[in-house]
Amino acid sequence: MRAGNRWSGGVVAPGLEWAAADFPEHQFTPHRHDGYVVGVTGKGVQRFTYRGAERLSLPGEVFLLHPDERHDGRPGTAAGFGFRAVYLSPDHVLAALDQSVLPFSPEPVHDAQAVSALVLSVFDAWSGAPPDDLAVNDAVCLMADLFRRVSDQRASPGPARRAKRMDPLIRRVREDLMSVTDAPVKIGDLERRHGMSRFTLSRDFRHAFGVTPSRFILLRRLDQARVKLRQGLSLADAAVTVGFADQSHMTRHFRATYGLTPGRWRDMQVN
């Protein structure tokens, strides 16, 4: 990997992040996110495979990826590519829209100037001085409205369901899973604590948040691993600390989720 590949990012609040990248040659392997990714290509041409088709995002265009949709990423020309993006977890979007169905856009690339300006304004606010709670809330509402405007529920990857308020019980399941440590989570314990059958719990959780409970827990552990790596822990120590069997176990899931190994991710960090 050339030294020119750079990545920087930060956490604004749980489930809300920003990132900026400049990749002369880096290629992401196929991976998935558990939340929405929306960004603006700022340099070069970004080429990626999404829902079985090749896509291109040109400078100034917006790319919008739905939770749990498999995709990759690579330069479309020899000049490489760069982007600025924000990441929003599904629960923030659902709460802002007051519904239980995630908005879904079958088209991942948008060239409307107003859309690009909105995304960049949120990125600038989140990547600068720490925004206050009110500003963060306003930004989430604006982004959720954007997702709804460009969505097409008929093309949703999940079963079609009437938009309604989310069951508070599913929110409590998510809050429960947010607190997991390195100990295994047993489905029987979740059934008893929340009074739901294991199949209803898994099905309704995925409808609400775009991923299954087991994948949600895996991604929270990867979140914790990134924090540990930023703090200077070794790959092996970070893996064991957050609940993976060993370094190779963490590396396999890290690459499948973020498209690069944890070692490369750590090396690309820009302070």
> What is the name of the CATH topology of the largest domain?
Jelly Rolls
Shape: globular
CATH homologous superfamily annotation of the largest domain: Regulatory protein AraC
Main sheet properties: 6 strands, antiparallel
Structural class, by secondary structure, is: alpha+beta
Q: What is the CATH architecture term of the largest domain? A: Sandwich
User: Under the CATH scheme, which class of the largest domain?
Assistant: Mainly Beta
Largest sheet: spatial strand order: 1-2-9-4-7-10
Explained architecture:
With 271 residues, the protein is of the alpha+beta class. It has 2 domains: 6-155, Regulatory protein AraC (Jelly Rolls, Sandwich); 167-271, Homeodomain-like (Arc Repressor Mutant, subunit A, Orthogonal Bundle). 42% of the residues lie in helices and 21% in strands. It has helices spanning 90-97, 113-127, 133-149, 168-178, 187-194, 198-209, 213-230, 235-241, 247-258, 262-268, and strands spanning 6-13, 16-23, 28-31, 36-44, 46-50, 53-57, 62-65, 71-75, 81-88, 109-110. The strands form 2 sheets. The chain has a 6-stranded antiparallel beta sheet. A 4-stranded antiparallel beta sheet has the order 3-8-5-6. Helix 1 (90-97) crosses helix 3, helix 7 (213-230) packs across helix 9 (247-258) and helix 8 (235-241) crosses helix 9. The chain is globular and about 55 Å long. The two termini are 19 Å apart. Residues 159-164 have low confidence and may be disordered.
